[in-house]
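can u do me a favor
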């Protein structure tokens, strides 16, 4: 059976050939009945056979020279040519006719599936409106350079990633995220290729070439996902390589042993052996299994979940442990100053100024939240720090020398290293301690809000069979423990440096049950090492993030942890359909092989068994595309 991604399907030409061959066969059949045989109907049957089966025989011969002996083309060719040789010309041509009819409807089903799946990825823009000297020129997207300006009119797809310089609009991001609610975009907003401009006219400055744009990466990811086969697919491929030679050998025994040793008639048993060969074609298994995984990947893509291969989709159905990064995964990653606790001799404003001066050289969200609080209070922020006066202490904080004063800002470890006692009786949250010339100045508490669906996501994962949920964070233990308790997580590891996260993840991975899978969910940039060593690396909220798409095995285009549950549901449903196809196909094959061996099933019934089972298996696989995801 042809690979689902390699089918060159021309419905019109195939249908014309099928109708013409059927007409020739009908004429031959009518003449054969009225004339009771003869040369004319034999010639017409042979003509119908050539019209309908020349491509199958040609492929069988070509594959023989390539060393691919036992495939469905070989089985069909041997069976039908053998039927001609024993005087069963009507059956030989008829089998090829009905085999081609089955193939036609089967390929129609596959093509429909391909269109429905690639339609999900139909986000590739056809053109870009390039702004050149106050003129708009319609050009191919791959000819636009970084720094060029493009115009996106209402109703048009955004062709390349960029920044809005003029205009405001609502954007439909459903092709990327699966979300139906439009997103507001205005000046300085980043926009991604593949989104649809719904209302206002936009001027966009291009920030990425088309080949590096979000739409190109997503299309490439989905198209290449079939290259990473699931274990079930690989098993079926290996099974077919063993199964086909075995049934050919059994057919040979069926043709030879009864006439030689049981006084059977050669004509009868050769005919049964040929029927046996037609029934034995493994088409349904070889096609429907990868079809199922391909449909599952397409369904996930429609929901804003990019799965890089059938192997990862299959692994999602066997998740036992899910490990989360905290910031940006379970929490929003938006930090805000929620408490200021000053030491004696320092005011709130003085403490904020000290901390902001120290943190002004950092782009970390915590540092930015301190600076933001200062600016909201109209306090001075010294951003002109000399490099030699700024020292970053890994995993602890920073030391800055300003106007002869040494200012420390960071966590409790930094204070302890410098022999400074701190006040630890504060509400939970991320704490930034500050000191001036060795004197404790106070502590600023910064909180990160938990995402609204984090708790329900953790609960849903447990309902789906996940035995252990874990959180890893570099935050202080008190804050981490509070969040873990609120979300009802099973384990929490806090105060971890980046390399300690990896070590902890390896330890957790070693504790899981054999055959089960561990997933790590992070932002895909800071957590790249952890994403790489997990069985399944899940990048959260990776819309437009190149690093996330590259590092992870599964990419969630929104930042909702609940999407992991949806991915598991799709994976489990896909696995169920694939198993149904395997059991159904093998059962039907076994029954008809026995019937064929005993002469109960004719060659007509054999071809219906083969083509019919293949078609039903493909149609069953297409049910995955209509699977309703629980929200």
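np, heres the sequence
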């Amino acid at each position: 059976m042809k690979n689902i991604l390699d089918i060159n399907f021309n419905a019109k030409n195939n249908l014309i050939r099928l109708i013409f061959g059927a007409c020739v066969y009908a004429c031959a059949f009518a003449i054969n009945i009225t004339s009771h045989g003869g040369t004319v109907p034999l010639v017409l049957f042979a003509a119908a056979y050539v019209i309908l089966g020349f491509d199958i025989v040609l492929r069988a011969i070509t594959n023989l020279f390539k060393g691919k002996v036992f495939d469905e083309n070989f089985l069909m060719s041997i069976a039908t040519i053998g039927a001609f040789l024993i005087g069963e010309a009507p059956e030989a041509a008829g089998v090829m006719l009905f085999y081609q009819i089955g193939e036609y409807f089967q390929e129609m089903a596959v093509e429909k599936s391909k269109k429905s799946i690639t339609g999900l990825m139909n986000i590739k823009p056809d053109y870009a409106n390039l702004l050149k000297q106050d003129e708009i020129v319609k050009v191919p997207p791959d000819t636009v350079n970084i720094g060029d300006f493009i115009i996106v009119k209402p109703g048009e797809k955004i062709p390349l990633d960029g920044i809005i310089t003029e205009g405001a609009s609502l954007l439909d991001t459903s092709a990327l995220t699966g979300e139906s609610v439009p997103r507001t975009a205005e000046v300085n907003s980043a926009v991604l290729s593949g989104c649809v401009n719904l209302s206002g006219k936009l001027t966009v400055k291009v920030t990425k070439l088309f080949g590096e744009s979000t739409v190109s990466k997503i299309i490439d990811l989905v198209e290449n996902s079939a290259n990473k086969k699931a274990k079930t697919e690989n098993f079926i491929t290996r099974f077919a390589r063993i199964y086909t030679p075995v049934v050919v050998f059994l057919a040979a025994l069926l043709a030879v042993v009864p006439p030689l040793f049981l006084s059977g008639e050669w004509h009868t048993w050769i005919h049964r052996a040929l029927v046996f060969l037609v029934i034995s074609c493994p088409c349904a298994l070889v096609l429907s299994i990868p079809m199922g995984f391909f449909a599952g990947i397409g369904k996930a893509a429609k929901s804003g979940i990019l799965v890089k291969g059938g192997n990862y989709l299959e692994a999602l159905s066997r998740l036992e442990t899910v490990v989360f990064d905290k910031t940006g995964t379970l929490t929003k990653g938006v930090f805000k100053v929620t408490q200021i606790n000053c030491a004696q001799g320092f005011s709130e404003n003085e403490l904020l100024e000290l901390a902001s001066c120290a943190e002004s050289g950092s782009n970390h969200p915590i540092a930015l939240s301190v600076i933001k609080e200062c600016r909201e209070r109209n306090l001075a922020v010294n951003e002109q720090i000399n490099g030699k006066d700024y020292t970053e202490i890994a995993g602890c904080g920073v030391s800055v020398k300003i106007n002869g004063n040494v200012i420390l800002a960071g966590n409790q470890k930094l204070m302890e290293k410098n022999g400074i006692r701190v006040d630890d009786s504060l509400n939970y949250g991320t704490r930034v301690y500050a000191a001036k010339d060795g004197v404790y100045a106070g502590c600023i508490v910064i909180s990160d809000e938990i995402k609204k669906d984090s708790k329900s996501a953790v609960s849903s994962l447990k309902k789906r069979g996940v035995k252990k949920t874990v959180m890893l964070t570099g935050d202080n233990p008190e804050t981490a423990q509070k969040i873990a308790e609120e979300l009802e997580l099973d384990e929490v590891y806090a105060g971890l440096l980046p390399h300690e996260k990896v070590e902890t993840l390896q330890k957790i991975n070693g504790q899981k049950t054999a055959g089960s899978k561990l997933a790590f969910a992070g932002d895909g940039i800071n957590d790249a090492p952890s994403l790489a060593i997990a069985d399944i690396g899940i990048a959260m909220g990776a819309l437009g993030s190149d690093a996330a798409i590259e590092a992870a095995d599964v990419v969630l285009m929104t930042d909702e942890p609940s999407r992991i549950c949806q991915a598991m549901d799709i994976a489990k449903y896909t696995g169920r359909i694939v198993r149904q196809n395997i059991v159904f196909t093998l059962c039907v094959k076994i029954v008809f092989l026995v019937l064929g061996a005993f002469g109960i099933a004719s060659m007509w019934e054999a071809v219906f068994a083969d083509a019919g089972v293949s078609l039903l298996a493909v149609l069953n696989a297409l049910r995955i595309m209509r699977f309703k995801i629980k929200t």
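The radius of gyration is 33 Å. hope that helps!!
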